[in-house]
Amino acid sequence: MSLKVGVTRFLGTNCDQDVRQWFSLNGHKAEYLWFEDQFNSNDYDMLVIPGGFSHGDYLRCGALAARTNVMKSVREFANKGKPILGICNGFQILCEAELLPGALLRNKDLRFIDGWQTLKVENTTNAFSKKMSVGQTIKLPIAHGEGQFYADSETLKKMVDQKQIWLTYENNPNGSMLNISGITNAKHNICGLMPHPERALFDWMGSSDGGFFL
Amino acid sequence: MINDLEKKLKTYRLSVEEYEKIKSLLGREPAPIEWPLYSALWSEHCSYKSSKIHLRKFSYRNERTPLMDGENAGVVDLGFDEKIAFKMESHNHPSFIEPVQGAATGVGGILRDIFTMGARPIMSANYLCFGDVDAPRMKDLMKGVVHGISSYGNCVGVPTVNGQTNFHPRYNKNILVNALNVGYFGPGMKMALSNASGPGNYVVYVGAKTGRDGVHGASMASASFDDDSESKKPNVQIGDPFYEKLLIEACLEVLEKNLVVAMQDMGAAGLTSSSFEMASKGQVGLVIDLKKVPLRDSTMSPEDILLSESQERMLLICEPKNFDVLHKTFKKWNLDSAILGEVQAQKKVKLMWGPEVLTDIDPDLIVESAPRYERPYTKWTPKNKVAELTRPTIQFAEILKKALSSSKLNRFTWIYNQYDQRVGAKTATACESAVAFTRLEHSGRGLALAVGCRPDVMEMDAQIGAYDAVYYPAFQMALKGAEVLAVTDCLNFGNPQKNEIMSEFVASVDAIVDASEQLKAPVISGNVSFYNETITENIVSTPAIGLVGLRDTVEDIRPDYFQNPFEMILEVKLNWVESFTWINSLGNKTSSFKSYPEINVPKFIQLCKNLDTEIKAKKIKVSAIKAVGLGGITTTCLKMTTSELGFDLSNDYQGVTAADYFKDTFYSFLITTSELEEVRKFLKSYFNSIPVEILKIGETTQKIIRITSEFQLDFDQFQKQFKQEI
What's the complex ipTM? Predict the structure, then answer.
């Protein structure tokens, strides 16, 4: 089924075109949503918040983006239980908007890290794990400076209990708690991950495991 | 009065002869505001006054490379409605003074050269030279430069896909930071030019506000360092990649909407060079009121405004009827745009300060009349050549230990893992490979990018070194099946007023001209950086090269690394140059250098390019393929190892002494296969017109590195040292 997908664009978003290409290749229709404008949540089946350096990463990564007009509509969309995916900076924005639990801190060695990671699928009860199975490993690239997942122990316990841990790193690159690389909210309709599935669609890219998401 | 003049000449870095020339051009004394104009535009950095007469030799063009002289970057027509613009530029002086900002703004500057033409930047690369790792400040300089490139490049959303990092003690006091960028024009994308036109059209300033940073930067970059480079910190520009990203999107949007007549980035010498060059190229005049320039600091003088090198700014010309939409577009991207004045038919640049006229001058009296110097040089005679190679005495363990600790043998993952290599979702191979490939969006073909110039070879012989700077990356590209299309160069040299430096410069230019013609790959853009000198110490002459190439597809690019254990390693060996340069660079002084000029290197490169297709057509079983670098087969095999796979040379390779295992041979390559006889037979018949030797040198292993029956390395310890941060 062809879906209508909204892709947010903030000042400094830079994976917008890559995400649009990913959805187009899968036969879906992707449209951009400008950060200053609100939208009608009935117009879309799915939302993606792509990566980049929204608003220059000023203040904290995702902090300014989380407080824009478009996010008011995103929140409304979320409340309807419809699927939202945040990738990299998009994950940070969803945490800043408190649509996802926890926070993403500076990597443990205080540097930006680019590279391929092997991830373990921990849970598949969300709209972006269509072709995954629990326990499977997938290979995706990361590229981030602030990807260390942190949550207080109470939140973390709740996340484990509610099966909110979606993907974990085989070799933790950034110091994330419980090796977390991707999570969902309690209702499992909002997902966030640091790796970039849209950069792993064909063997020539180094991996085609992004195909497991849609 | 005389003292006053001397002081002025010193401040504005002009010679007495240049002052006399200015007076005769103007027919009077220069006005106060004209001093800084001449200082900036006649600086080596802006005027190329010592190099121009030699740069004219880069005149060769072919059907793929339209004549675009005077534009910000060279353009290559790839067919299928696709074009690219590309260029490499230096940011050496600022990076030594303040490495993070120096390197970051180097990346920013080259990006603006590309998107000012209307192309979307798609690949970044860099070429870095550092001194001894133990030299003062060197580790901080390295960390700073890498951090600067990473922080700027990642934020703008352009992948950094290739780079080369060199170390040599002659860069201790002058490091090199060269940044390269490739931009893409897809079907329907318009190319923007930089010549102003249309009297009555607006002169519009867009981008970040102007501050005091970088004032006199261009003339600073045109002089040698004394001991007090620290005091030049205020001359270094400060960048903000977030503004750059907004500027890219806004500029491409106004071009797409057809709102722009001409566009030019404000780079070296800021508003001065952009305005005078746009007027001179368009053979029109401009009236500009400096009071209308958006400022960060309202106390700035007209001179400061003219010479500021604040980053992320552009000057453009637009028709009055389009200004409103243009202004709104920039506003949408949170950027300033301000009308500074207008184009006039009379070819004069009139600079105003409110109602006051500061100068009213024919731009050609500055831009086109810049001095041209034929600096003295001596015709090149080959250096360091010997009749017989003397093998230096070395021990395996000692030489490898030295190499691993001196950065001569390092995987540099700690550098390139700080760069986002895959944003854009088009990267096929990046920094871990010698040649980067990006998929072209429209045609699906692979665009190849490689950089070259080996300082150790330059030091042995500048002429061979400059040929090698072009040939070696071309050879690496050919081995991956890409056809070389065009060349950009960044000529980093010392003081051109010294005969030996100028001689190396001329020999290098002549070699690059010849090499590029032989390969049918025109030199279409570039940059010259002179005065890489501190007190009397000059850098190794370093003509850095960037090459772009084309491959039919990004599928099945044969990797640089071992793929399977227990495969055969074959060497295809061509003797153009034999030397012990690599061993020499580790402190052994007994090495030697021998070349065989009768070898037809371009022909070999062409054959290597077709090899990729032949292997595929004939279904020959080949897994990895890699050019043999300095340090010969041993260092190349070490670089081909992975965390699981090693190699064993002990049964096959027959070196007489340990040195043979590290002998440099230009150009050889290694190929791995499970089918020894089939591949050997195929290669013999394929290369029958060229004097190559084809030898089995060893086999791949599982976690074993054995060089001779007596000498092997601890696999895990080697991997650890190989990847460790310097």
Answer: 0.97
